[in-house]
């Protein structure tokens, strides 16, 4: 299935790259261990857990920065190593991170505060060089191992790094201290950013024990659970909150938010209240977005813009094939 | 919203150009050598009718300039998929971009290498020389300002297409009242006289305006008291002085029942005279034909009879005294003197109904039914024509309509019934056309402004006036008679007349009328716009420029109604009706030399 041409130093796999992309997406979802360390007494004693509505004097965040990233594998390639060694696999991927600045209530439009698109070739081969295709240059990034999971993880790490870089840069430029940064996905690797909340849409693991899990099911729209501290491979504050939803399915409209572990409890509670107040107004609508309401409107819009910025996949694939043939 | 904040002012397509960059050629819509779309740079705006240019380096030919006029402008949200997304975007939750794009119809490609512009090429707002080139003003040796474009710069019409060099005649269409057809025609005449293209001929070039609606046009030589600073500046930008016409003479029909034939006009006392035809002229010049100038008349059986009676009148009528009365003496004697039009009609009726004399007037074998139909029609004209076909007024008064008295001659028809209007237009046009024909030279030019052309040259049927107008349209170009016709509905005017007009103008159009094929020269978008055009905005098509230009012409510097009229001009009081010596031979034309 491969087109082997020696000189270019790499070969593009003829299989549609989408086949492996679906697998990678699953592999990258949070696969947390079931035995997470929990401290349920941060806000309320575990025995007193009940749905919490934001305090009446809570101020909604003035500015919300919402960060997200998208990734796409443009082609699977084989690097032809020098000598007689077998070719090693790699992925040529485009990924982009962006930040939307929302100023609720001001009538100001949601703006794309920052966006960056990168293209990289992820491979474990030490001999690979940058691919200069007509549609763009793929820079070599070294992956730890050459399994599909390893390559995909390397891609996810670069994307997360890009999101962090962009967030830091955007915060520096903004210099506003009333802003709140919401990152799509777990906060892992970003816990050092101030006033930052991780936003997790899907639940693969039930972290809470039975009595507290019942509180999650009892949440009404715009309510949250008390804040708790959880530690898996890393520690962070977390709470569940319920978005307005029409579906009666269990856990419909429930999302988990994460905040840095080193915050003071009162800071975390204040942050949790602000988020709980702000998020329901950003919730998506089911007929527009299949992942509604968890997929927030700004995130949906940002993903669409970012995917568009990744470029036309067919064009990139063709240019990679052409570069391999040179 | 700026998507990524990157300005596009830096020129990537190489050519340095004048004017500010407004956007770039779109690549998502196919660009062709004849039309292309541009994306508007955030913070910029273009409007309809704006002139833009772009350049492209074509290998082997060098830079090619592509210039065009904006014909469509659109704005929309990019990144929104549902109509309700507009609320999310306005609330600031959904990120999306407002994008504006515009369609450009190419007017000129210089040199003529028909290549599409490259997508991404910077598009500039055309200014100065680029604009002149885009609209062909640079190749117009003699140009007439016809108003300001959307950008506030003057728009011109090529005089070659007005004076007969390469074309002639103007057709102006539009809804009555808001289309300002007559005002535009008057402004065009003013512009021709004052722009300097006529050079030495300016003094001798004449205009003949038939005024059918009220006394609006009777004050062309009075300054307009409502002319403000802004309008004066507009004239300045067009390179025209803001002043009234300097030489105007008005012809009006005599006041009914007045024994002295005072002009039937209340608002004007100077530079006005009454017009009428004497019975002698009526018989000699066979004007009877123009009494039957309806399209219906031509279809009726009696057209032969009209010719026969007119010929008899010419042969048998002789002046009776010098007041214009005639004595009709058929062979065999028995002359009858007629002093009024009614007398003449009665006499003709007597002669035709009398079995003994009918054959001598009508020739043999004319059925009685035809004779009766003719007489019924003729009698119907008595009331209309009595005031202007006379034999009872004091002799020696100049009473004919002539363009030699002043630069602009206005024939006021608004007090006359429709049949009399037809009669006057037909007779006057025939006279002027014959005069130009006999002079043998096209110069100096005569401009004829005629409103309600659909009444005089309808699409259906034939009439003597239509014949003359067709003659003007087809031969006037070489004879120096230029028709500026106006009508509410060009679709109802004889096709050959409209087809011969080099310059076509539309003001506000009725939506049903705008969809007719006669307005094919207006692109669909202009046609739609013409239905909402404001008074003072006209779409002007001329042969050289492939798209009609939207122009706004200035507020008249001359009064259009008595309330606007400033002080009357001094020193041109010729043939004043208040002149006590009026009616005495020789005392009518000169101002006493003191």
Automatic annotation (TrEMBL), chain A:
InterPro entries assigned: RNaseH-like_sf
Protein name per the record: NurA domain-containing protein
